[in-house]
Amino acid sequence: MTYKLTVGLEVHAELKTKTKMFCNSANDPFNAEPNVNICPVCMAHPGTLPVINKQAVHHVLRVGTALGSTIADFTEFDRKNYFYPDIPKGYQISQYKYPLVSGGNLNGVLIERVHLEEDTASSSHEGSEGSLVDYNRAGVPLMELVTKPVIHTAEDAGAFARELQLLLRTLGVSDANMEKGEMRVEANISISNTDKLGTKVEVKNLNSFRSVERAIAYEVARMTAVLDGGPGEIVQETRGWDEGKQATFSQRKKESAHDYRYFPDPDLPKLKISEIPEFSNEALQATMPELPWEKRERLVREYGVKPENAEVFISEPLLCGLFEEAVIAIGVDRPSVSLIENYITSDLVGLMKAGGSLGGVTGHTLADLVNMIKAGDLSSRGAKDTLAILYAEGGEPKVIAEKNGFIQKNDTEALKKIVDEIISANPAVALDYKSGKVALLQFFVGQGMKASKGAGNPALLKTLFEEGLK
């Protein structure tokens, strides 16, 4: 039987602030020393009082502005009560009835709400030795975004999470590194063959986009097998994801909101957003950078950038800045832009895998390199070799190319001598070419480029070989 998949996502993102959400301990959960970024407030000592981190609130409101959401005029913080070692107070400060942000849209997915809370401590389980708890993360500002249940494929869920990560990084509110746990995705999954939603299962703490997609696909297969008469049952529960087995596993029965006994935190003031100047719509709009979908559209429209390369530029601001600097330096003509685009997304990206920076490459030197290619001074091979040295050492492309013998040779007589020598050294291949195996011409051109150390003009070499092999 065919079933319709419905998914709603809950995404947590640790926010970039100097201090934690309700105290002045450093927001540095990855400190090598455990339990050093703590204080009486985040460790819940008696008599301590929390204070709201204004920057964290501002971050969430900026996210809401970018999503086209409704910013709350009134908001408050609530206590979410449960007992676990990673919560020193016995409750988590979160938001329930009055979130900071409601509604909005991202990547075609409707947003239910975005609220602000504090993160829990990090637990590491040592088997029979017990568990260890590091409270460096306890109290770190944590944004939670909840979508409406309107996602119907695993791929769309992954695409939404990727776009959200791009948005958070573009706004500068979170690094959203999933491997570090700075962004964590939970998927609420159900399938049904009617208009009514099926029994919902939540898969928690998925730490990669691929895991999000694979966990959803696994649950669809598992639920389908059960509904088609197989063993087991579908119950409302929380499940985990086993990366090694590529399978979900049952963790606990899914709690409902009333299980947490939410109530307004009496130690924190209510907030009237409209009374805070920095939180006005005009002030928030003024902080908006060019958003990922805006930049994606502009790169394609203004420069003719390939969609897949536009994604590279959006996800790597360093590369996008270099691209636009080079285009401005050289002028916006399609052949030049295409060369700049290709050398960045193929050659430079490859060089950056080891170092992660732009090395000695700037927009102006990249523009100079492309101008040399257009003028016929550099072959493709010579340009790649020049770029590699430019990346490693810096300098000027022309000086590098001249010093290393990369300047393309257009001397017909010199190249004809190379051509004659190669044909004489490969009589059998020359005979096969003359017998009709015309694809062998590329072999001869390749040998010519090798003999000229990459400096021969490949178009001229091709012409000379065609004449020499008649």
Automatic annotation (TrEMBL):
Record InterPro entries: Asn/Gln-tRNA_amidoTrfase_suB/E, Asn/Gln-tRNA_Trfase_suB/E_cat, Asn/Gln_amidotransferase, Asn/Gln_tRNA_amidoTrase-B-like, GatB, GatB_C_1, GatB_Yqey_C_2, Gln-tRNA_amidoTrfase_suB_CS
Signal sequence region: none
EC number from the UniProt entry: 6.3.5.-
Quaternary structure (record): Heterotrimer of A, B and C subunits.
GO terms for MF: asparaginyl-tRNA synthase (glutamine-hydrolyzing) activity; ATP binding; glutaminyl-tRNA synthase (glutamine-hydrolyzing) activity
Family classification: Belongs to the GatB/GatE family. GatB subfamily.
Species annotation: Candidatus Nomurabacteria bacterium CG1_02_43_90
Known role: Allows the formation of correctly charged Asn-tRNA(Asn) or Gln-tRNA(Gln) through the transamidation of misacylated Asp-tRNA(Asn) or Glu-tRNA(Gln) in organisms which lack either or both of asparaginyl-tRNA or glutaminyl-tRNA synthetases. The reaction takes place in the presence of glutamine and ATP through an activated phospho-Asp-tRNA(Asn) or phospho-Glu-tRNA(Gln).
Record gene name: gatB
PROSITE patterns assigned to the protein according to its UniProt record, in alphabetical order: GATB
Keyword field: ATP-binding, Ligase, Nucleotide-binding, Protein biosynthesis
Keyword Protein biosynthesis attached: yes
Protein's name in the database: Aspartyl/glutamyl-tRNA(Asn/Gln) amidotransferase subunit B
Gene3D superfamilies linked to this entry: 1.10.10.410, GatB domain, N-terminal subdomain (1.10.150.380)
Location of the Asn/Gln amidotransferase domain: 321-469
Catalyzed reaction equations: L-glutamyl-tRNA(Gln) + L-glutamine + ATP + H2O = L-glutaminyl-tRNA(Gln) + L-glutamate + ADP + phosphate + H(+); L-aspartyl-tRNA(Asn) + L-glutamine + ATP + H2O = L-asparaginyl-tRNA(Asn) + L-glutamate + ADP + phosphate + 2 H(+)
